[in-house]
Amino acid sequence: MMLNGVKVLSFTHFMQGPSAVQMLADLGADVIKIERPEGAYERFWSGMDTYNNGVSIFFLLANRNQKSLAIDLRAKEGIEVIYKMIKDTDVVVENYRPGAMERLGLGFEKLKEINPKIVYCSCSGFGPDGPYVKKPGQDLLLQSLSGLMSLSGRKNDPPTPVGTAVVDQHGAVIAAFGIVSALFNRERTGEGCKVESNLLNSALDLQRESLAYFLNKGEIWDRSDTGLASRFHQSPYGVYKTKNGFLTVSNTPIEKLAAILESEALSHFTSKDQMRKRDEIDKIFSDIMTTRTTEDWEKFFTENDVWYAPVNDYDDVVKDAQVKWNKMVVTTHHPDAGDVTLIDQPLRFNGKAPKQKLHQPAIGEQSVEILKQYGYSDKVINEMIEKRIIVSNERKKNTK
């Protein structure tokens, strides 16, 4: 794979950091998850209390293709292990609170002294400094602070959050992109780099289009009380009620709509009006949409080349023909959790998705294996286990 031979130490927990690291691991990087002896946070929390045989699905969704070294970083011996590993490590990724890695002696400047070529990525809520540096950085909070919640919903609805961790995941993608870019630059220059990805910048980047209009026009239109889905698009553009459900319609010239719908009311408007008079047009279009069933509209819009999509719930999504064709939903076997169904790596290389090589590890599953690779004797390793500096949960066989 593309990142074979790249060694990564992951000091990450929650969502943003582990998801970024998993992208690297999926592409072949040798990733070691450095976690506390009792295990990382995501092992003990899961949305909807979703556990397979006691194993957190939240942990499983972002920790595949990685090894686990469970080690006490508060102990001098634990830090010395990390210093030894850093010498031949390519990438460090961390999403502790700003300043925490420095207090442990694992900040960028210290690790750069040991390995000048290190690529060091910090994932945070707001960045390494500034007035909000001590505030909690979490997806929902950043959706609120960044203005993202103000974009969705109808005019009289309260601010409406996106119902999934979109800021976390986008921050993870930005972090992974930054790491790969820094590695590419190192190949050319021989120099390491500090990469910084934070959730505030991620949330603003998600709004690159809408914020650009606001910054240059000085305003952004109010949310609509009809079907309009954005505060800057023309009508129709949104989710519309039909006789028996809902349908999403996008970007069709008003002249074409007036003709195929045989609508006298719409015939009075031009394409230029679709922006300036979008609310008026949308009210007319919304009323027309309620006259037929969803199925009738789907057939009609297909025949007339109008952009539309069904409003799917998750039952529909997993049955969707293109989702199945893309093979984005995969079931793998985990030695503790059993069969687990998750979303696959989204990238394809020469038409194929990267194969999973390692299951999500138990706490410290590879602790002994890793320390042996760095020259530690059985005697020293056993002493570390006895002192709880490391935790070992070796399996007889590593299931792939």
Account of the protein in words:
This protein has 400 residues and is α/β, with parallel strands linked by helices. The protein is 38% helix and 16% strand. The protein has helices at residues 16-26, 57-60, 76-86, 100-104, 108-114, 139-145, 166-189, 199-206, 208-217, 254-261, 264-267, 273-276, 278-289, 294-303, 314-319, 321-326, 367-373, 378-386; strands at residues 7-11, 30-35, 51-52, 55-56, 66-71, 91-94, 119-124, 193-198, 237-241, 246-250, 307-310, 329-334, 338-343, 390-391. Helix 1 (16-26) packs across helix 7 (166-189) and helix 7 (166-189) packs across helix 8 (199-206). The protein is elongated. The model has no long low-confidence stretch (mean pLDDT 95).
Give a quick summary of the entry.
Helices cover 38% and strands 16% of the residues.
Task: Write down the domain tally.
Answer: 2
Radius of gyration: 26 Å
Q: Using the coordinates above, name the CATH class of the largest domain.
A: Alpha Beta
Strand order of the largest sheet: 8-7-6-1-2-5-14
Kindly name the structural category.
alpha/beta
Provide a count of the helices: 18
Mean pLDDT: 95
Q: Roughly what percent helix?
A: 25-40%
CATH architecture of the largest domain: 3-Layer(aba) Sandwich
CATH level 3 topology of the largest domain:
Rossmann fold
Low-confidence stretches: none
Count of DSSP strands: 14
| Shape verdict | elongated
Percent range for β-strand residues: 15-25%
Instruction: Please outline the major beta sheet.
Output: 7 strands, mixed
Distance between the termini: 16 Å
Under CATH, the homologous superfamily of the largest domain reads Crotonobetainyl-coa:carnitine coa-transferase, domain 1
